[in-house]
């Protein structure tokens, strides 16, 4: 089913060839005796901010000093805080700071700023050879200008992995025959989660219906976007500047059955702010999340009654059964504010330095982000950088990066193209079903507390009518936000 269409000012990616053909770096306008100062806004915090600041300092003391570039970096807090600060600057809000020379940005936000005419054309500062060094899909994501030229410089990317509490998995697997192979597909995860719920429920026969959830996921929007893509559908399809929202009922039913249904039944769960929090409290055994979340996977379970250390496994993110091996491509890049040639040139010089294999991998070893150069996405190069710089890398981060590097050739990274109101459309994917689950699951729990079995309590929410009602509401919500 294809819903209503909307004409949008969006990059026609058939014009990406413009990027590759037009790349011709200009002669340097820099003068080491009269250095140019650059300001960078980002959303890094904690160890990520420390790693980024260290690299900025190294740049200033080496290449920056040699070429006449001095960089100052500032964390704006969270992603939303950064986006608010950028919008306030663009709109000239009273008290807002001036636009920074460089700032971190996701594609949807960058698209808004580009529509305001505030981003520099980065293709003017990179030649064809330099452009070809970066992972193609990362560069294409940054081509959000109407003429297909580059506006978002890829600096650090991520995809999704599955992390598992190995310690508590092992007794469950030993007693039930559950296999890690079953976790390769979403259908297998759903079946395993049911088995885990029933196994934990059976351990307290005097208390029926107290089974525990097995699995959860961060970023429900990714589940919709990538799940649909694995089934051959682009939920947000942009061709020649025209947006089509594709919401075929059969494919959405598959997503419903492998997320809504197990959530309602208590086989899946979402309790804290992030699913790694739920593993820490013992409420979940496994979750799908960003590669950059690996560092937050807990070292122990801390419940109200016990605390004990746990080991972990890093696995591929599950794919829908029979689906193509698409995986989400995510992570903010850096954009350069439109100003003058000297500042724009200097900004690109810093970004090229930051994304060199050694520097990018040093940042990735701390942040869990993937490097953006083709040559850097392999285990051998990672090991060279770790040994060469004597880095201490958290085992979880190392295992996460190497798991992805080994799978890069067998999966296709995907992100939808940018379009007007893209952020609002993504919020529908993130919250529409999740909000319904919150209310429906509460009703199920209440019914069970009143003496109904799990099957009886869930029955009203698993009917054909219940799916149809959600389906039409979901489609209406998507169409409403993109047609504002």
Termini Cα gap: 21 Å
Largest sheet: 5 strands, mixed
**Portion in beta strands:** 5-15%
Question: What is the overall shape?
Answer: globular
Helix content: 40-55%
Helix and strand content put the structural class at alpha/beta
- The total of helices stands at 20
Radius of gyration using CA atoms only = 24 Å
Uncertain runs with pLDDT below 50, 5 residues or more?
Answer: 1-21
- In what order do the strands lie side by side in the largest sheet? 3-2-4-15-5
- The whole-number mean of residue pLDDT values reads 92
Q: What is the β-strand count? A: 16
Give the topology.
Blueprint: E1 2-7, H1 17-22, E2 36-42, H2 46-61, H3 63-67, E3 69-75, H4 79-90, E4 102-105, H5 107-115, H6 128-131, H7 136-141, E5 152-153, E6 160-165, H8 166-176, H9 186-202, E7 215-217, H10 220-230, E8 236-239, E9 242-246, H11 249-257, H12 260-265, H13 275-280, E10 286-290, E11 300-302, E12 307-309, E13 312-316, E14 326-328, E15 333-336, H14 341-354, H15 357-367, H16 379-388, H17 395-407, E16 412-414, H18 422-449, H19 454-458, H20 464-482
Parallel strand pairs: 2-3, 2-4, 7-10, 14-16
Antiparallel strand pairs: 1-9, 4-15, 5-15, 6-10, 6-13, 8-9, 11-12
Main attributes?
484 residues, alpha/beta, 14% strand
Please summarize what this structure is.
The protein has about 475 residues and is an alpha/beta fold. Helix content is about 45%, strand content about 15%. It contains 20 helices and 16 strands.
